[in-house]
Amino acid sequence: MAPQRLGILAVYLSKARLEELSFFRKLSHEGKKLGLQVEVFTPDDVDSSNQVRTLVYDAEQKKWIRRKASFPPIIYDRARYQGSGKYQILKAFRKKHSDLIYLSRPLANKWFMHQTLSEDEEIRKYIPATVRFSTTLELMKFLKKHKLIYVKPKNGTGGRGILRIEQIGHDLYLLQGRSQQRTILTPYRSNEKQLMIKLNTMKLTPDYVVQQGIPLTLKDGRVHDYRLLIQKNGSGEWEVTGCAGRIGPHRSITSNLHGGGSAVALNKLLTKRFSSAEKIEKIKEDLDSFAHKLAKFLEGKFGKLCELGLDIAIDPKGEIWLLEVNPKPSREIFRRTGQTLAYQKAIIRPLEYALWVLKQKENQSKQPNKVEP
């Protein structure tokens, strides 16, 4: 029996370089065990007759092979934002091929996401105060109210272009951040007037959002947060795959692994911060409950989803704050923390969910058409 086919929608970083090829190879390896052939392609690989030049991994030759085929019946979208040009190409592809079955749908940018999440009273309490950048003067008013803020590109990923501004004295401010290339910026201490001049030179636009800062600094001065992965399982149900902590390098305002952050097991980091075992268990229960609540809400707004990576802050009181939602999350954090089972599940679950979706489609096609009375 021929294997089922799963298409992976990707995007070229350069002329012929794909961002997650090692992950796709793992998917191919695990897919083969399940009777699922993984085929990687980009919009550039589709010709005028809707034939696709897909990449299929040959385990014996240990290399990717190009094959021309029809569209796979189901698509796992892993095409991440790589600038407005590639975004428009992906947007046009999704619109043209809306009849394909997708495991998930793109979510909104940071500002629209904030507005969407704020619609739900239960979820709203987990979200830091957020406004769209308008002027430096308005930003300063927001800073004086919250004392600590983050300024983020609404479409940015991986910590690129994020600024952290803190009022550390009566007329003393600290500006830190990362460039668009993730380089750590030199900390800048100044008074209010100097800070406003500095911010004006950065030419911020309404494409940035300004967010209330949550205290994330550990005793050694490094920032931290948590990455929770919730995925659909082989029965089509949401299930938390795992959660782990991330600690940023010295002088960094972000904890992203791509930006030099280190991974630490959830229990280890929580135990370091909270002495009560009951408190830690309550936090873990809250994380699980919130993740399910959020996943179901977002599905109701955006359509079927496959997985979500949630960037979570836990303040000194043990309260949960949602920093960001990633619909195309990495799973590297579980490998780095030695959580072998969680890492394996994180790779396999999209494949198992794809097979479940295909089975539902097959069962529906077998049902006779109902005749209206």
Automatic annotation (TrEMBL):
Keyword annotations of the record: ATP-binding, Nucleotide-binding
Xref: Gene3D superfamilies: ATP-grasp fold, B domain
Keyword set includes ATP-binding: yes
Protein species of origin: Paenibacillus hexagrammi
Protein name: YheC/YheD family protein
Annotated ranges, domain ATP-grasp: 120-352
